[in-house]
Fold each of these.
Amino acid sequence: SCTDAVDFRPVSIDPTFNNGPFNVTPVSSRNIVLESTRTGQCPVFLGPLLIHQSKTFQAYYYLTSQLVGLQPRLQSLQAFGTDGEDELIKACKSVFKESISLRCFRHFQQNVERTMKNLGMQEYENVITGHIVGNEETRGLLEAGSEEEFDQAFQDHIKIWKELPNGEK
């Protein structure tokens, strides 16, 4: 359940499709009661869709407030994930007052990759992305078990990044 304080999965609200003058924003979540025999993962269930012409606070507020109107227990939503769209986050926070706002992992990774490209550091993308998200050789910042562990790993990685050519950017 998305509202269980101990065992929950975030609700994903992601303005995914742009079809001409219309945007489509699906709501989805993982069903923790079920498990795929093929992948061992909980399946993603598609929920309501918002078809809208503008990515405004009002459009997103309508979607989120209607969700709570139809399912009042969603007021206790533990977390929601988005692509980082500011107006969507504002609307979610105004409706799901107690929940945590999360960033979709794939969008986060794309932001890191885009930043590396903008800084002209594509050749170090795998190293730095590995430091942030982790890989086989490196435990990433996102895998830190505490704020202290994150801060220490961040300081260690910054030293390495500054030693890379163009690292002072």
Amino acid sequence: MRALVILLAVTCAVTSSNIYLLQPVLDQVAHDFAVSEATAGLCATSTQIGYAAGILLLVPLGDRLDRRPLILALMGLTTLALAAAASAPNITWLVVASAAIGLLTPVPQLVLPLGVALSGQGTGRVVGVLQAGLLTGLLASRAYAGVLGEFAGWRQVYWCSVVLMVVTGLALVLRLPSAPGTEPELRYGVLLRSLPGLFRDRGVAGTCLA
């Protein structure tokens, strides 16, 4: 169980880091595509919008579907979106790829309840470890993206994340257990309609962890 918790924490770190990869290298993107920094900033904005949409539209599926194939599918699709961003031929392509990265990235919001379900009596400790992984990814991504971008260019930042996603995804294929949804009989539309009540009763933080 300990090894699995560490793997899940690494998964939280690797996936959450995708949200802020581009911000330290926006000036390089602007220079590469000969656009203003404000235009390049649309890539970062689209990532955030996509991330919010992913939490609202994809995370509720964790209550209905087995989280193992759902997490693996999102990991694979996010990897493809990262590769698309790394090979973007123009700024429009990068904006769309960035939105896709954000949309497909809310894997930590699926991993956290999975860790709780698997933890038994050690729920608090497991949540703490997973949250630490999440925060590490959010905080460290800007630093390593900035350093790597400075020496290798912004595209290599994305390719590095592709490698991290592939390695983490393969480890999950080998170690991630099945975790059937707690409400498999609920339709997707019903799950979405339940979100306002969750926001009202538990707040945004509670909804993200649910």
Amino acid sequence: MLAVPEIDVVCICTPSGIHLEPALKSIGAGKHCLIEKPLEITVERCNAIIDAARRAGVKVGVIFPSRFYEASRQLITSINGNRFGDLVLGSAYVKWHRSEAYYASGRWRGTWEYDGGGALMNQGIHSVDLLQWYMGPVESVQAVAANVRHKNIEVEDTIVATLNFKNGALGTLECTTAVFPGTLKRIEIMGTEGTAILEGDHLIKWQFQQENAVDEQIRNSIKEVTPSAGGASNPADISFVGHQRQLEDMIRAIETGDEPFINGEEGRKSVEIVRAIYESARSGNRVKLIS
């Protein structure tokens, strides 16, 4: 396959801890790579992909479809426009249900070697990515983890963490695959001058101290949203729209020579945060991030 000159980009959808090897082979053949989240399961393995792509002059994109929904874009635009004032609290909640059959469906699931972790690395990392995108770099984390329900896996099915952001804001993160029936993932961004709440991939709250003409339109659009299950209890319920837009973005980057919207460096950020959270849960100490 890699010898076929008409192939420009390879999508890597192997288990999380086996992204590096096919990525390096594809990069070595001069192919661009679009890699499912997480980019890899350690920062070192992420760096190996990023460095190889840089040397080969090819592009790497990392799948985080939640960034491509309209509500997510509206939120980041308003943050960058300083509408929230000083950011105060950023919270992410991923309280999902995954059955024993889900973990038994593949020997890689729920293992440190191939899954890289449990509920946080596999399901929660989307919300970790959004949280750091909105709130900015994470300075340190403190966490506790447990395996409450899924006793046949090596990793956590429940984890709670607090985060200190470099801008002085604080954050919380709760993630599990042990609850029934599960609820939509939720992101809360709160500042001195405004609050926004994402549930699934839609806004459910949008309020600012200084209103503008667009705000009422956004609130009216919130009323028209039909809630979906959003993967809370079944991965098949997750919409394909974000993936479609990210594939389109990768093609745009290749055609124009620009970087993908979520390149390797962006994809590495959430892995670094997750690994720090796991280290804190293991050691019982607050862990500072390197970058």
